[in-house]
Amino acid sequence: MTAEEKTFLQEQGYLIVRGVVDGEWLEELRGETARLLREEGENAGGEFRREAGSDRLANLVDKGACFQRLVTHPLLLEAVETVLGPDWKLSSLNYRAALPGEQSLQPLHCDMGLVPDERGNAVFNSIWMLDDFTEENGPTRFVPGSHKSGVLPQAVLADAHAPHPEEMVALGKAGDVILTNAHLWHGGTANRTAAARRSLHGFYVRGDLPQQQYQKKLLRPETVAGMGPLLRRVLALDDERNDAISGAGSGKSGFLK
Ligand SMILES: O=C(O)CCC(=O)C(=O)O
Hints:
By secondary structure, this protein is of the alpha+beta class.
């Protein structure tokens, strides 16, 4: 990342990076998520949650090398460190497709229902576009700079579902990635086309907070057996503090994430 990109991310709370995923990797991510949706059926997303109006998958690090490649991407990790500092870990890797219909509209929210605290930023998210994000198909909306407000949108807005006067939508091509300080007020919008709008969410959290999905518990032994040091570090597999924090309970609390 350039110094300008880092400053933009810090100041505006988001950065859209173009063309991160090449054609071959994109097809693999699309194919594998489609296969998992078919295979998991009604259980899809169950390691986290199901959401009306969207398709979800969770615990994706356990489900393929193409997903492990995503959570260790050097650009992503540089952005995570820019926002969270050196003490961070993966919280979850999930899939979300906004399905056609009004139900895919989400309220503005901050991930985990958190605002920054005395230690600074606590949450970072990345949205990987598996389809073009257009005005019509339910692009992510967000309010630039709102990560610095220190308040949750639902605490100060009369209706967090309503359009915000300062909001913008993240438009882009399949393969682009939205990097966000996840204290930024944001949400999915309604998909007014006939086709699903697919994405992956690589979500990271500061080291002193619980993972949304406690990776050590969810990963199968055969998945862990093949892992190198970088992936183990990203997932906090050798971090005893994380075992105490994430092993004690669920990081599911809070809004949406
Ligand atoms: O998929 C999107 O556009 C955003 C989804 C989101 O913010 C969430 O699920 O918390």
